[in-house]
Amino acid sequence: MDFLSPEEWTAVALSLRVSLWATVVALPLAIWIAVLLARREFWGKQLLNGIVHLPLILPPVVTGYMLLLTFGRRAPVGSWLADTLGLVFAFRWTGAALAAGIMGFPLMVRAIRLALESVDPKLEQAAATLGAPRIWVFVTVTLPLILPGIIAGAILGFAKAMGEFGATITFVSNIPGQTQTLPSAIYAFLQVPGGEASALRLVAVSVTIAMAALIGSEILARRATKRMMGT
Amino acid sequence: MSLSISIQHRFEGFTLDTSFEAPAGVTALFGSSGSGKTTLVNAVAGLLRTDQARVQIGERVLCDSAKGLFLPPHKRRIGYVFQEGRLFPHLTVRHNLRYGRWFSGRRGDRTEEARVVDMLGIGDLLDRRPGALSGGEKQRVAIGRALLSQPLLLLMDEPLAALDEARKAEILPYLERLQDETDIPILYVSHSVAEVARLATTVVLLDKGKLLKTGPTAQVMSDPALAPAFGLREAGSVLAATVTAHHADGLTELMAAGGQVFLPRIGVAPGNTVRLRIHANDVMLSLDRPERISALNVLPCKVTAIRSGGGPGAMVQLKAGQDQILARITKRSATLLDLHPGSEVFAIVKSVSVAQADIGARDQSMAKSDTTT
What we know:
The structure holds two protein chains of two kinds. Helices cover about 80% and strands about 0% of the residues of chain A. Chain A is an all-alpha fold. Chain A is globular. Chain A starts with 5 loop residues before the first helix and ends with a helix. By secondary structure, chain B is α+β, with helices and mostly antiparallel strands. Chain B has two domains: about 5-215, P-loop containing nucleotide triphosphate hydrolases (Rossmann fold); about 235-370, CATH 2.40.50.100. In chain B, about 25% of the residues lie in helices and about 35% in strands. Chain B has a six-stranded mixed beta sheet with strand order 7-8-9-3-10-11, sandwiched between helices. In chain B, helix 2 (about 95-105) runs parallel beside helix 4 (about 135-145). At the A-B interface, helix 6, helix 7 and helix 11 of A face strand 7 and helix 2 of B.
């Protein structure tokens, strides 16, 4: 493709990889947290709710810095992960994925929680009287019913990951091919003379991906809803 | 299989405290709204954890708070038909029906499924989703779904309450059929006297969380002391009668314990038994056998009890053969006729309705209603 230079392509591919990983890993966790928040009563529920929503209200730079303090090479969690699992986040694309995932997490949880709250618990009771253990009630009744919400949450999380800038650049810097995602690349191009053309092309790519994701999710969610309404 | 239930639960401003035993068949839980019927069935199903509970079906104890035993709902093997159906909207009718079988450990029993589908007349709906069903169809599927989960007890919480009269009439025959074709005990919650008269073997009368009375349907419904609980307008007795002949003038002749009864033609063959319902309001009393009167159904009776409250009316319980009949007259008439227990009177029954066409006769009445639906 001549439309983008190899350098620009690298940024686009990296962004897609980072966002996909962020979404795929965060999604099951987001479903679990959403279930806890929507259905369970436990001590510290408000605290958990607050922590989950923190990235949404903190300046992204602050989130990025806190990530650095926690997952940096010499930080407690970061060094432990590097030693035991060989998982390094600092200044790697994995770190960008972590930052993107955490920034998108509250959006996913909110969308899924909203869907969960609209599921009639009476249907789950009915499933239980038919002999389904709790976990199977969740898999066969709850999960299919919140599918539109899960799709919406995943797309929101993905879009947030694609656009994440502040936390990423603070946590993992702006290394081409490693941590330079689309927004970082656009920012970098705008800093050098004559980079406007590159920046503009990346903006176009960015808009296209965002629109495609949005339309795709709309179609999926509509199909899921339609299936349920029996038409 | 007999049923033994004992539930105590305290809500804010309301205490449910009820114990009863019921034989096999349909046990109707009757009471006005707020009498604790739904709480009771939810406790039986395990959906509600009450302060005290002991539920036993046959030899199987589902919960016993004295021993700290509480089976979770999915281990109770109870089929629950809810008022609002509660079908799974994301599954087809077929998969809704099969849902319980996934967990009962008895896979692949296609003949049982075919039998239930046929009994409920839902064969044409199997590939549809609940969103595309009418209210009556949904309820039939819900009944089928509960039946196919191989339950030891069927709970029905006002399964007809959300339906209009036409849909009710559509489902009632299936419920009667259910009663005949399965031996699963049924606990049927209702606040409709007509449904109780039609379906119940045993009536459990609840009032504000307390047990008012339990016993065989005919006995409970003809108790003048309980008439206010059923509502004075709805109060009345049920009795069994055998069809003896169909006459050319369009009448069917039946024999009840108290004598001959005529009804506009019913689709039940001679020799079969039906359950009749006589409203207390439709019975007049006369000291002499009335001659030259248009009413066809006149039964000689003996007064067994008279009960009057603060109003102008009196409820008179009569014995006609082995059957008991309720008559609602005014206090003034009771005094004028000098009625007291032991008085011999004639009951002039203005109208009789068939509450239920019994076993054997059902096939024909079903065949008839099948052609009209």
